[in-house]
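pasting for ref
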Amino acid sequence: MSLTRLYRHGVLEAEDFPATEISDYSADLSSVVWFDLCDPTAEELSSISDELGLHPLAVEDAVNERQRPKLDRYDTHLFLNAYAVEFDELSGQLVNHEVAAFITHSALVTVRKSDRFQIDQVVARWDRDRDLARFGVGFLVYGLVDYVVDTHFEAVQALDAQIEALEEQLFEDNPKDDGLQRRTFELRKSLVTLRRVVLPMREVVNTLLRRDQHTVDAEMVPYFQDVYDHVLRATEWTESLRDLVSTIFETHLTVRSNRLNVIMKQVTSWAAIIAVPTAVTGFYGQNVPYPGFAHASGFWTSTLITVGLSGVLFVVFRRKDWI
């Protein structure tokens, strides 16, 4: 499935026209063309490649998956690769949706690796900012990059909320240790994945802002600078959350160790108290004569010693908050 749009003099003039007409429209200096492909094969891209003179290496990168986020420069066009992300709060997993784009002076060709990349959200941004369409292909690139960066920002916000929930669980009276450890690992893994796609976008947007690329008009620079600011914030936020998750994991281990120490103190205290009557009754259980042997005084003496020493130990341990 493919989608097409034609802007002439900053006005949307046509949609869903055949791909064979792209070269005719792109030859018109007053026109800007957008063409979209979803999970195409190399053969399907060949016609567009011939129409726009795309570099074979860029076409190969557009077909192959798992390319790093980047912006490559060729003689006649730029090649952009980026990832929109989606965070699943239930599983704690981060899902990537890859998109590639060929950028010429009058055309934008987007290649989605799957239909889960919401290109309709990009189109909605173009329609919302239709007044910027007069700035040519830079307007289309801005809508695409802005959507991608916004998904990064939404994901890092959702991860931040999940990490705050983990912090609250740390000091609960009856924490679920297994669930907390698993959730911490899942969020840490998602943050590593997010960092892998967010960090390179800083260089991508910065390169688009360079004047020697001739992609962004001067009027569009403030909009790309705003996107660049969002990229920096998302990058710094991701880095801080990675450190915070590591701290939470270490704190969790410390809390568990402290709880274990408390339990050991309690068990040891009660064992010491129980050892008193055991020792006394063991002594008075000797089968040789001793003071009070075979008399009631011996019974009361042993009882007083047992109760007295046990009571003293209980008070001492209680004051030390061991029991």
